[in-house]
What we know:
This protein is of the alpha/beta class. It is rod-shaped. One calcium ion binds next to loops.
Amino acid sequence: MKKHDNNMIIRKIKKGHAWLSILSGLIVIAISALTLAYLVIMLTYYFIHTKLAVEYSSVSLMSAIYEKSLGEENGDIAGYLDEGGRIYFVRDDEGSTLFGEDDPDCTNVWNYAQIFNTGETIRLYRDADYQFFSVGADGSINIEIIDLINTIKEEKKLGDQSEILYLPETDKADDLYENDPLDYLFFGPIADMYIRFPLWMGIELPEGGAFIAKCYLSVKMTDISVLGTALFMLGILLLIIFTMFIVNIIGNIRKQRKIFNMVFFDVVTEGHNRMWALYRGGKLIKNRMPGSRQYAAVDLFFVNYNTFCVCHSVAEGEELLRKMYRSLGKMLNRGEIRAVGSPGEFLLLLRYDDYDRLTGRLNAIISQLEKTDTDHTFYFHAGVSVISSSKGENERKLRHADIEQEFSNALTARHTLGESSGSATAFFDLKLVEERRWRDKVEEHSRQALVNSEFLVYYQPKYDPVTRELKGAEALIRWQSPELGFVSPGKFIPIFESNGFITEIDHYMLSHVAADQKRWLDMGKKCVPVSVNVSRAHFIESDLAEQIRDIVDAAGAPRDLIEIELTESAFFDDKNALIGTIGRLKEYGFSVSMDDFGSGFSSLNSLKDMPLDVLKIDAEFFRGDNAGERGQIVVSETIKLARSLNMKTVAEGVEEKEQVDFLAGQGCDMIQGYYFAKPMPAGEYENKMGEPAAQDISESIPSM
Length: 704
Ligand code: C2E
Ligand code: CA
Ligand code: CA
């Protein structure tokens, strides 16, 4: 999976955190609770106002009667007003009673209030026994709901029958509270029940002062049940919302668990997988404090896992992995991580104190794992990437260490161990990354380069050291890449050898050289044999000789103008197959040379079995210490040996005149080196054909 994808998944998991849904749930619940409270207050406010309005009409009527009758006989007015059965009196602005009997229960005026469906201002006085609303400085009525409800409750509990009136159906004495037959239909006998809260209401008189009368805020049981039902419904609504969110949160937590299990679960070991190592590891690395302990990412690979599966069964192999995963768990400390990567690969995040201790621990872990099944010998390769040191490192870098990169570095380090058998550990170093990057770049562009003919054939002439005659040339590849620039073969041939692309390169070179030879022949040039390198990797193909023959024939070049160079190390592979291929190449008319003779583990013995034509003496003999007397002895003996085996000799990498003279004296057949010429483009080489060598490099045109 790509890095980008991993990050996306991890980010998604983080987003799905349960606490986020809990938080959003709480916010919604808070909003709905506030809305509910507001609705309750508004409803009660409206309810009380409506009740007040009813009382107001009665009191204002009384006040109007009083007003009208001013100047008339007092007794008449009093008698008339008394008919309402209410207590009333008139006060002047100073508070002295002008008319009627002031009631001791009526305390001071608080303020003015507005009855909202009349818009008129009234004065509200407190009745000492009942306080369920107050009047604010701005005239607003502040309803104390709790008091109202408590009051009602208290009234009921006390069973004060004087305040809870049961009005017989036939005798509806209080015409203000006439029962609605519909109410009775819906609420039955309780429709007749009501509680009365006394309060005093004052209406301004035009001459100053106020007409004050005791009235009642009458709460019918039907009102209470309507209010109660409304509150109950709203409560239920809130409960539903609340339940929905709880369900949602539980659902989210479950979903989260499921995702966790799915994304982080390793089916084979029933442990954690790579994603877990990245997720947990990433968190651990980010949360550690500067100066705290360091970590190392470890890529531990069970080298012979595949072989074991092939020899036994995948099921047995997986059982082994399970056991190994379990024993890894026992060997880790708190705060360390184990996970499974690809089959046979374990990812560990271990605490790092110093190089020696970590190596010691890894060795202990590996030797424990090797013992998982004592009937078999197991090998493990461990790649380690130590995650940035806390000392002297700036904090930001420390915290932003990329765990995925660290594991990839550990893998790169492990890859350096190659296929070597036996357990081993390798630490990551930055040079490896550079190599890896270069390799990726080369691999990315190589195929297109072949299509675009970015590979060029350079020729390096071989001269007779005595006559200075051109005797041959070697074809050497160059890469003129628009992306990578001019690249010398040392930087890409080893990569192509390891990934197999070299076979295509070899074919490409061979066909171009054959085509050049054919062209030069057609031009009437004096052609000499050109040697082409054929990689060791190519030699495993059993029909290699036929492939070469067909390519050369297709280009129309004579076979004796093509020489095949095999590198010395190829001679360690399947010797019989090699002898067969060389034999067939010669049979088809090609000459064959052994390249880099003396560079590695030359087997003089193998020389006698190989029907080779040319021995190329490695350039190393003409460098540094080798160039001395002892080196000269080896070179002169090699030339003699070659001659006795009927082989020609080519000395490579010759740069000095003395070397040329020495080789001429020893009977070396050809010299290929900078002394005479560097590798050059085909056009330049074409000009040198049929010409003797220039005396030294200073006279030839400098080129690669
Ligand atoms: P090689 O086959 O041993 O080629 C000889 C190398 O020595 C060439 O390097 C050449 O430029 C260099 N050389 C020749 N004379 C002198 C000298 O006097 N002094 C010094 N310092 N160097 C000298 P080059 O071209 O960089 O090639 C390096 C290697 O890459 C070759 O070593 C060969 O193994 C491989 N290679 C080059 N072209 C091909 C190809 O077409 N196919 C394959 N399979 N391998 C190739
Ligand atoms: Ca060569
Ligand atoms: Ca060579």
